[in-house]
Amino acid sequence: MDKDRSVSLRASRRPNHSNLDIQDGDDGFFDADKSSLDYPIKTIWKRGFVRLLLVGGILWMLLILVVLLFHIWTCQSSLVFVSALCNKDSTVFQMLHTRGLVTPPHRCSIPLASDPEKVVIPEKRSPSKYVQSLSYFEEDVPKTNGSYSSPLFGGHQSWKQREDSFKLKSTMKVHCGFMRNGGAEMSAKDIEYVKKCKFVVASGIFDGYDTPHQPSNVSPRSKKLFCFLMAVDEVSLNFMKQNVTVREDDDGGQWVGMWRLILLKHPPYDEPRRNGKVPKILTHRLFPQALYSIWIDGKMELLVDPLLMLERYLWRGKHTFAIAQHKHHKNIYEEADSNKRRKRYARPLIDHQMKIYRYEGLEPWSPLKQTKSDVPEGAIIIREHTALNNLFSCLWFNEVNLLTPRDQLSFGFVVYRLKGNFKFFMFPNCEYNAIFILHPHTREHSSKIEWVKSLDEFKGNSSGLKESRGGLGLWSPYPADLNSVVLPHVTRTSKAG
C-alpha cells in the first residue's frame, strides 16, 4: 500500500507533458508562428528604413551640390541674363567667395529701379541712433610745448582726445577738420551757392591730376534735384582753364559742363592725396545743408542716375551709408602689405599705423566678423548725413589726418572702434565697377615719401620728407610701447593686390 501510494504521489508530482503540449498548441503555437512571420517583416522594414535614409541623404546632398554648382555657374557666367540670377549679397555667395570657389566678375548688372521719375523720396530723415547732437572744435590750440604753432586744418588732436572720440554719447564734440585759419576756405559766392544743395554729387581734383568728366544717363528729375559740385585747388583750376572750357555764370560761379567748381583756397596739406580726402570724407562739413551725398573720385565718369543710386543703395534696404567691397582684400593688414609693395606711402610709417591698430585690438578680418570686409573701395561713397554718419566721417578723417593718408587702411578700424554701432551697406565690387568709367590721370602722381623704406631716410638732410601739416601722429609719442607689438602674418590672396 505504501509502495503504491508513493508511486502514485510521484506520478502526480510528475509534469503532465501531454497537457503542456496541448497548452503550447493552444497558445504558444500561434505566438511562435507570429514570431516567425514578424521577424522577417521587421528585418525588412528596418533595412528598408536605413536604405531610405541613405538614399534620401544622398539625394539631399546631390540637390545641395546642384544648387551650389548652379550658383557658381550663374555668378561666373558672362551672359547678362544668367549672371543676373546670381544673388551676390547672399550668404552662400560670400561663403563660396571666401573659399575661392567663386570669382566675382569685374562688372555686373545693377538691380536699379526702372524709372527715376517714379522713385519715392523718403519724407522723413532716418532716426538718429546713439548720437543726437554733434558739434566740432573750430579753434586749434596754437601752442605746443611752449612754442608757437600755426593752426592746422585737422587741429592738434591729442591721443586722449582721439580715444575719447570713439566713446559714443548722446551729445558729442569732436575734431573734424576746418579749424579756423587752417586752410581749405571757400569763397563767399560758393558758400552762398551750396546752401541750396540738399542732394549732392560731389567730386574733387587737386594738383591738376585730372579734368572733370561729365556724368551720363542723368534724368531730368536728377538734374533739377542734385547739385554736382567739384572741389578744386588753384593749381587744378588753372589747369582746367588751359585744357577745357570753363564758363562763368552771372553770379561769378565757374562751371565745367554740369560740374559747379568749388575753389578751396590755401590747401591744408603738403600732400595732394591728403588734400583730396577733405571733400571726400568731410562732405557733410563742406556742404552742411546737404541731406544726401554721393562721392565719386575725380578720375571717374558717372554712368548711373544719382537718384537711382540712392534708391538702390540706401532707401531700398533702409541703409544710411553705402560703400563698395574691395575687389582683392578683406583684411586691413593685407591691404597695408599691398600698399607697401605698391609704394603708396612710406613703408615704416604704414607699419607704425598698423602697430597702433594691432595694439588697440584690431584683429585680421575673418568670416566670423559682422562685416563683409574690413577694406572698402573708397572711390564711391553714398550716404545720408545723419549725426552718426557724420561722426563716423569725422573719426575716419581724423585717422587720415593723424596717420597715413591711405583711407582704406583706417575705414575698417573706425568701424571696429565703434563696436558694431555703425551700420553700413557694403555692396558687391562688380556693381561698383558698373557705376563708372575710369579715366587715366593727366599725369602720374609721385611723392618722395612713397619710396621711403627705412626711418633712417627721414634723418639729416632728408628730414624734408616729413609732412609739416599732416600725419603728425606718426611722429608724436604714442602712449604705449609699440616695440613689442607683432603684426599678424599676411598671406597674399591676390596677385593683383
TrEMBL record:
The keyword Protein biosynthesis is assigned to this record: no
Claim: Transmembrane is one of the keywords in the record: yes
Domain TOD1/MUCI70 glycosyltransferase-like residue range list: 134-441
Keywords (A to Z) from UniProt: Membrane, Transmembrane, Transmembrane helix
Superkingdom of source: Eukaryota
TM regions (residue ranges): 52-73
Protein name stated in the entry: TOD1/MUCI70 glycosyltransferase-like domain-containing protein
